[in-house]
Amino acid sequence: MSDFSRDSLSDFVRDVMIVARQEAHRMRHYYIGVEHLFIGLLEIKGGITTSLLADEGLLIEYVIDAIRRRTSKGSRDRLWPDLPNTPRAKIIMDIAQELAFEEGRKNIQERDLLMAILEENDNIPMRVLNALGVQMAQFRENARTRQVKRGVTGTFTKVNIAATFEGDLDTDQMFILRRMFYGYAEVRVETRLTRGFSSAVVLIATPIHADQQADASVVVKIGPSDAIQEEAIRYDRYVKNTLPPLTARLEDRPIAPDNSNYAALKYTLLTDMQGHSVDLGMVMNEWTALELGNWLYDQLYRTFGYRWWKQSRRYVFEAWKEYEWLLPPALTLQYIDTPDNAPPPAGTVIIKPGKRPKLEEVEYGAVVQVANYIVQKVDPDKGTIWLALGDGMNTPRACEIEVTSIDFSQDTYFRGEAVEKIYGRVWRTRHERLLDAVRALEADFDLKGEMISVGAHRLPNPLKAYTLMLEQPIEGALSIIHGDLHPGNILIGPNQSALLIDFAHTRSGHTLYDWANLEVTLLADIFTKNIQPDWNSVREVFEHIYAAYNGHSLRETDTIEAHAIQQLVESLRRIVRDCVSSPGKLSEFYIGVFFCSMRAVTWENTLPLAGRRLLFLLAALAAEQFRDEVKPDSRDKSSNATATDQTRSGEG
Questions:
Q1: How many angstroms separate the CA atoms of 404 and 424, rounded?
Q2: Percent of the chain with pLDDT over 90
Q3: What is the pLDDT of residues 208-252, one digit of tens each?
Q4: Residues near 632 by beta carbon (within 8 Å), at least 6 away in sequence
Q5: Which of 209, 256, 470, 629 is deepest in the core (most CB within 10 A)?
Q6: Residues 6 or more apart whose Cβ sits within 8 Å of residue 577
Q7: Neighbouring C-beta atoms of residue 334, cutoff 10 Å
Q8: What is 98-109 written as a DSSP string?
């Protein structure tokens, strides 16, 4: 029991203390500190505290996770039976009581407790808010004067959907739009921009006043609140000061209502000469491959290159550190509840940071202890967390492990938490997931061997090659990268200028990842759009890509498609050669093409069958190109093996 006298507590303080005690229990702290009181304030829906944080564009759960990361989780072992208040928490409550008396009240209200925390200033919540970029002087002033009118909705903003809009918006998305454009009579949703494969929705919207005067259209991105919050931070860290003068920019802080799991960002929108807003995905099939390639070089690369991709330095890394996050989780574990001090069960596989663990060798049914991994994502509704090496902001997620069947009523996990140890039993592996994805392609060639036959070619089997590819040492370049460069995130502005949006994955990373990802996307989107998904049609397209990758000269009799593929590949190679760390060596690019292709093979619900089949073959080709450059004599050995196989086949 807390040493605050319950008889003297107002209903408000009693409610805050209930939440504070629950939070302390979840975090195994066994005391009530200022951080627990502050989290109690954050649970007041529509209150002063949540209103002020919403003005700052800070999602409540994001702030709570930041506080939890600062305090970390305690041990399961209790040293005392009670939940005493810390000396600082007692001081805070004394200050809050004094503030209430000054206002002629006996009972503490929300503003009193919030102002007490702000005035004391040296507590954990204040340190966290400072770290999140909150201007504390203005925040204090707003806390003193803010009036929250509960139950008053204000002017209703009508959401109109243009006749040309494809698809629907759900209730949460409509609510976010009304919040974002509060004060306008209406907002007209013009179109949905083509997207990659995230769960976010990207729209073009036009706000309209009561007199029907329209303001400039903007790009609105609506997505899971934690991802939107992180994108805003990435924008400030990597993007804001490096963008060209004339380009799309983040207009305001995120809109993050405290009663929604969604949040939104608003980007400025520069239209083309006709006032239209288009992304590259909308027009790339109208351009010739040569026009597209030239535009990518002249407008996109030259506009952003000297601020991003060309501002690079030498970077030596093992491929898994940059690319493993593109693959499915290495392991999926069913959670095993184990006491803190209990020894590991016999035969337990222990996984901890350091040299990359050989997760491919862990078998189904094995008991695993994962130690000192970072929580990347939490889904309490599914009882699941995702663990990985790397914090996810500055480095990609490597060696990801999914843990299911967690009872969140008994324990809590939060993004960014370093989990000391957690146990689980393996019920699915990465290889199983990849094998299922490849089986769905219904290959008409043998997938059991180290090599696969594609027409006249013998190529490395991606299912057999990916583990070795992850371990390859790479000499590359490090720079700011967009992190999700595909046609839906590339807008076309005035005079066909290039604009970029969606910075959810922007970071310092391997320079050529962006261009590998874009090449894989373009080849699949453009050249499988109008073909049948049968293997013969896919192989025909692949033959043209194979020729382009190997520098084969075209003949006049070759198809228009063959010329288009070669023109596009050559245009992209112009950019790639300008970015490689070692002139003339493209192995660091092929490693990116391999893993970007393997990721797309798993997109059964979002990428058509023809595209997935083509990219599986492209992964095989990228593995061959990488192997031949790193080990030049391997091509001869492969050719000899093929000839031997053919001879044996003839002898048989």
A1: 9
A2: 53
A3: 998 899 998 898 999 888 888 889 888 988 998 888 776 778 878
A4: none
A5: 256
A6: 583, 584, 586
A7: 14
A8: HHHHHTT-SS--
Per residue in 549-564, pLDDT (tens digit) is: 999 988 877 888 999 9
DSSP for residue 616: H
Other CB atoms within 10 Å distance of the CB of residue 392: 20
Kindly give, in sequence order, each residue whose CB lies less than 8 Å from that of residue 141, ignoring residues fewer than 6 positions away.
none
Q: Report the C-alpha gap between 431 and 438 in whole angstroms.
A: 10
Task: Write the single-letter amino acid at 169.
Answer: L
Residues 517, 575 contacting (CB under 8 angstroms): no
In this structure, the number of other CB atoms found within 10 A of the CB of residue 163 comes to 5
Amino acid at 449: G
**Are the CB atoms for 392 and 434 separated by under 8 Å?**
no
What amino acid occupies position 323? Y
Query: Chain centroid to CA 587: how far?
Result: 26
- Tell me the two tokens of residue 425: 């039993």
Q: Which residues contact 244 (CB under 8 A, 6 or more apart)?
A: 303, 304, 307
Element (H, E) at 12: helix 11-26
Q: Is 102 exposed, middle or buried (0-12, 13-18, 19+ CB in 10 A)?
A: exposed
Read off the pLDDT of each residue in 68-74 and give the average, rounded to a whole number. Answer: 88
Supply 391's token pair.
Answer: 């914090």
Long-range residue pairs from 152-155, CB within 8 A, at least 24 positions apart, any chain: 154/182, 155/182, 155/183, 155/185
Kindly state the tokens that stand for 46: 């529509």
DSSP strands (E only) in 445-591: 451-454, 457-460, 473-481, 490-492, 498-500, 507-510
The type of residue at 526 is I
**DSSP structural state of residue 581:** S
Strands 331-336 and 422-429: antiparallel
Closest CA to 33 of 7, 6, 60, 72: 72
State the Cα–Cα distance between residues 210 and 204, nearest whole angstrom. Answer: 20
Convert the pLDDT of each residue in 485-514 to its tens digit: 999 899 888 888 898 988 989 999 999 999
Pairwise CA distance, residues 216 & 210, whole Å: 15
Instruction: Tell me the two tokens of residue 462.
Output: 């991606």
User: Which among 327, 525, 524 has a CA at the least distance from the CA of 434?
Assistant: 327
CA dist 512 and 506 (Å) reads: 13
Listing DSSP states for 170-235 in one string gives -HHHHHHHHHHTTTSSEEEEEEE----SSS-EEEEEEEE-TTS-B---EEEEEEEHHHHHHHHHHI
- How many Å separate Cα 207 from the centre of its chain? 29
Task: Please check the confidence at residue 162 and state whether its pLDDT lies above 50.
Answer: yes
**Mean pLDDT computed over 569-578:** 95
- From the list 198, 191, 177, the residue with the least C-alpha distance to 255 is 177
Mean pLDDT, rounded, for 146-151? 65
3-state DSSP call for residue 522? helix
Coil, helix or strand at residue 245: coil
Taking the C-alpha atoms of residue 623 and residue 472, their distance in angstroms, rounded to an integer, is: 11
Tell me the pLDDT band of 262, cut-offs 50, 70 and 90. Answer: confident
